Give the backbone structure.
Amino acid sequence: MLEFFQEYKSQIINSLIIIGFVIVLSLLTNVLHKWLLKQEIKKYPDVKPKAINWVRRILNALWLVLGFIALSFLFVNEERSSALRHNFQIILYLGVVSVLTIVAAASANIWFRVSIRRKVENAEDPTSFKFLRYMAVIGIYITGVLFALLAFPSLKGVAQTALGGAGVIALIAGVASQEALSNLVGGVFIISFKPFKIGDVIKVTDNMVGTVVDITLRHTVIRNFENKMIVIPNAIINKEKLINYDLGELKICERIEIGISYDSDIDLAKKIMKEECEKHPNILDNRSATDILNGNPIVRTALTSLNDSSVTIRAWAWAQNFSDAFDMRCDLLESIKKRFDSEGIEIPFPYRTVVFKNSKAESENDKRDYEKEENNKE
């Protein structure tokens, strides 16, 4: 045993030194991780520290792999040591690039989050910053991948061309599908021309109405009034004809339409609808100074159509915004219906006449009873 130690004394000491370095680096990494974790939680309590955790895992794995390669130097000949040295450099380069990429992406993400929060607090539009955040983070990761490819001779030319400038766009266009590119272009158009922004209430179809909560590189997210998220690709929503209830003036004219029977008093029905609309708390007086001077009513009512079994009366009621208009419509339909019931205004509904046919056996019994009655008369 003593002879073995004397023969491999230098290798054993170097191995212990390498293992000690790996342990020390791992301990320092964990200590630095805990300190950074506390600082980030203190400064950004609402941000999950995913980047710091990933950096710790990458560094710990890097120290182990580099330590294993360093130990291998002690037990191989000089021919293989050159290959190990090359692998050591590649792994070290990839580790450094990975850590720098994650740190840069996390820093950009945090900066954009803080800027978005500041804009929201100042009642400014954060849509552009939210969209640019996705582009910046994805651009940093793509750049990091391209720098990592420089370590491999077979891919070095592609990476250098892409990093040269326009090659980045060409590379993305080459590997991405037409649908992905159309969604990206659609997102850029939405941010540039602003048909809607985050926080706007929009209507794409009758089943897709809600508040815009996010605009990403691929899709737009809408929260409907059932608190469900609707994810619409940017290429689709960019082509649709949509209604933006928050673009320009917010006030809305809500049309309350109710059909009454032909026998009902039309003037009384119009009066009831006008009174119920005007006393609702969400009603907005949209009359001009001339209309007020001429004595025009706040709510206009009129007979708009003659149907097969009813006549339709419409009331034009204005509200401050879409939410007030929706609540007002629901309340008015209920209150007008109650007033119609108490005032004798009938809302027609379809009548059906049901004819029950007798079975064959019952028909034969009725026939025999009829013949007996005829015979008794004779």
In short: Residues 225 and 351 are 35 Å apart (CA to CA). Residues 2-185 form one domain.
